Amino acid sequence: MTNLHAVAELHRPPVDEPGPAVPLIRARGVSVSYGARRVLGDVSLDIARGSVTALIGPSGCGKTSFLGCLNRMVDLIPRCRVTGELRLAGADLLDPTLDVVALRRRVGLIFQRPNPFPFSIRHNLDLPLREAGVRRKEPRAAAIERCLRAVGLWDEVHDRLDHAAGALSGGQQQRLCIARALLLDPEVLLMDEPCSALDPISGATVEALIGSLKERCTIVIVTHNLAQARRVADRCALFWLRDGIGTIVEQGTVGQIFHAPKSEITAAYVRGAVA
Amino acid sequence: MSIDALRRRRTARVVDAAVWGVPAITVAALAWLLADVVWHGAGQIDLAFLTTAPRSAGRAGGIAPMLVSTAIVVAIAVAVALPLAVGTAVLLVEVLPPSASAGRWIRRSLDILAGMPSIVFGLFGNLVFCTMLGMGFSLLSGGLTLACMVLPILMRAAEESLRGVPDGCRRGALALGMPRHRAITAVILPCGMPGIIDGLTLGVGRAMAETAALVFTSGYVDRMPSALTDSGRTLAVHVFDLSMNVTGGDRWAYATALVLIGLLLVTAGLLSLASRFLQRKGAHKP
Amino acid sequence: MTSISSRRPAERLFVTGLGLCGAAASLTIVAVIGVTTVEATPALSVAGPQAFLTDDGWFPLSGRFGLMPMILGTVLVSLGGLALAGPMGIVSAVFCNHYAPAAVATAYRLLLKALAGIPSVVYGLWGLVTLVPLIAAWAPPGASLLAGILVLALMILPTVAVVADSAIQQLPPALHRGGAALGMRRHTIAFRVVVPAARSGLATALVLALGRALGETMALLMVTGNLVQYPSSLFDPVRTLAANIALEMAYAQDIHRSALFVSGLVLALLVAAALVVAEVLAPDGTRHVD
């Protein structure tokens, strides 16, 4: 285990340890364009270390694009351009020379659809560890058990680690993916509607898990489910389309957003009056 | 019932009969062919036939050197063509943007290559490998010629298989902080392996069955090859030679053909087992 | 998946390797055609390209290079084979999709696969030993255009059937249901609705099979008798271009050898023409490897 932390440290560029006042993630005027089409404009947001931030709002207003900027998955989209200022613990995330591989090990991502690799459960979990340079078997096995326990999957699968991951239920697959992301001890875990492709019971299991992960890492979750945002998040940011471009209309604590919204759009949205 | 309705019903019956007739003819033809091969060939086959060298131009003895030559030629072809094919497929699917003109050019050139008659490969191989590169009639020349021939088959299979790999796997691997080449070699290629193996089945089948491209590249010599630079006669070439050039060689030609068909079936069976095993290992719940 | 460049040396090396694979793979056809052309040049320049079409007879050692009888022989055998295999293949595809119970269709598709997997030399052997004597008993000599057509038909049937099958499978299911909803009979739906709707895919199947037929060498060499002549009936022997190469390469020297490369080039061009037609005909989204 210590071994693994040492490995994770290797990938952390030396930065000044931010004080409690400095947010872990700091976005100022972030805009995203796909070719000539601007999808996200002028987003400013602070995310504190150890918090759960929910990005809410209707489909197609740039929440996922914003999430993609945080671990540079947007690089995969052809002709995608990001401007503005985006920092993780002081490091410039939009620097074109940034080592995105190292970044993605610090900032994990959970997809809407569970995407275990079509290998065995063990192989799914072994891969990122081996990639990170954990050569020896015992620390890998220990890390796998630790992360499977963290997502509550250990008791369900410890006796069939060599079975196909694809044979697990949807909820189990999603928890496996979370465990897989946790293996490298990311500072931030991004979740893109992690429960929306699951049945309600599996969804509730995954949702319960999010609360318990708070101690390990900072979580940014995109969700359409307002009740879910209320249950799991400390802070919320409401994304909305303005003139065809997504932006944040209001952000604050869950209490502010749901009980004392400043914007009428927010008030109407949380009431369920507009979609 | 009106006459019209009766006539229509009769038409239906005639058409239906014709539609069932075609597969019946096909089945009958295949059965006839296979029955002939087995009928004339099975009697000659025993352990000695498989393990000894031919005598009196193939009218006695066995086919051991041909089995070895076939295996070597096919192995060379696969060893050369498979990495090239998979590399090209990865380039097309994972590296080049879909609109790249380089990709279109590569695809089209392989399409044309796939359509070339095998005798043209024979000419090419004879000229380039045997003459220009000085390999002479050899297993190496034959294997390299076959490699050119099966390259497009393997490439297309690998390409389609990689395209079928869910994007979730691809993005999942990258999101875990895998560098792209590791995402490809550790995740995407293993995901696409069943399809690549299916392509291999086709390619190996084609290579084992080939005659025209080999007659003037790996040659006719029916001795046991002792080096890759030796000429060697494959099973298919042996069948050809026995039936065309050896009077009274028919039964032995049939026997060799039967072994060749058996070998094709066994290879296809083994490879499809491998493919299925890999698929099951990674089975996704529907 | 756009950023091809990378700062990681391992990744750069990897991408370079892939690029080399792609370059080698795509240059293979260039090499095949280029080398064949270069080798064909001496004969083409000595005799002139038109000699290969107009000379009366194939006596390369005495400077007569007429390929016409062999071109005609090749085309006749191929078209004859296609005339049989085409309709049978299309009916096979219709059978699999609209007539056969699922299990029968699966078995039949497997059988077509088996037919496609049988080596051409085995078809040739069977034709030579079984078919040719049968034809000879009826109209000697037996080894003939007809024998070639029958053997070839069997060989290209799976090509037609498999490509036609996938063309029909790609049709929207609504087409079939729509016909059924109109109270049409099965054969009406199959041959009046489905086959016309799939016609471009079916045409592709035919042309691909033709390409395969034009290039077939060994099986035809074994059953067509190999006389260089214009056949006057189905029972006359003919020699195909591919068979000619296979027959004479063993001893051809100098200009003769060069002339064989010319016939190889002609063959390649015939097949390439068929492929171009196939590509023009192919409906979007269907790609083929034979």
UniProtKB/TrEMBL annotation, chain A:
InterPro entries: AAA+_ATPase, ABC_transporter-like_ATP-bd, ABC_transporter-like_CS, P-loop_NTPase, PstB-like. One of its GO terms (biological process) is phosphate ion transmembrane transport. It holds the Pfam family ABC_tran. One of its GO terms (molecular function) is ATP binding. One of its GO terms (cellular component) is membrane. The keyword Transcription regulation does not apply. It comes from the Bacteria. Signal peptide: none annotated. Residues 25-270 form the ABC transporter domain. Gene3D superfamilies: P-loop containing nucleotide triphosphate hydrolases (3.40.50.300). Keywords: ATP-binding, Nucleotide-binding, Phosphate transport, Transport. This is Phosphate ABC transporter ATP-binding protein (PhoT family).
Automatic annotation (TrEMBL), chain B:
It is found in: Cell inner membrane; Cell membrane. One of its GO terms (biological process) is phosphate ion transmembrane transport. GO terms for molecular function: phosphate transmembrane transporter activity. InterPro entries: MetI-like, MetI-like_sf, Phosphate_PstA. It comes from the Bacteria. It is a multi-pass membrane protein. GO terms for cellular component: plasma membrane. PROSITE patterns: ABC_TM1. Residues 67-273 form the ABC transmembrane type-1 domain. Keywords: Cell membrane, Membrane, Transmembrane, Transmembrane helix, Transport. The chain crosses the membrane at residues 12-35, 71-97, 109-129, 135-154, 183-204, 252-274. PANTHER family: PHOSPHATE TRANSPORT SYSTEM PERMEASE PROTEIN PSTA-RELATED. Belongs to the binding-protein-dependent transport system permease family. CysTW subfamily. This is Phosphate transport system permease protein PstA.
Automatic annotation (TrEMBL), chain C:
Keywords: Cell inner membrane, Cell membrane, Membrane, Phosphate transport, Transmembrane, Transmembrane helix, Transport. The chain crosses the membrane at residues 12-35, 70-95, 115-139, 145-168, 259-282. Part of the binding-protein-dependent transport system for phosphate; probably responsible for the translocation of the substrate across the membrane. InterPro entries: MetI-like (IPR000515), MetI-like_sf (IPR035906), Phosphate_PstC (IPR011864), Phosphate_Transport_Permease (IPR051124). It comes from Azospirillum brasilense. SUPFAM superfamilies: MetI-like. Pfam families: BPD_transp_1 (PF00528). Belongs to the binding-protein-dependent transport system permease family. CysTW subfamily. It is a multi-pass membrane protein. GO terms for biological process: phosphate ion transport. It comes from the Bacteria. It is found in: Cell inner membrane; Cell membrane. Residues 71-278 form the ABC transmembrane type-1 domain. GO terms for molecular function: phosphate transmembrane transporter activity. This is Phosphate transport system permease protein. The keyword Electron transport does not apply. One of its GO terms (cellular component) is plasma membrane.
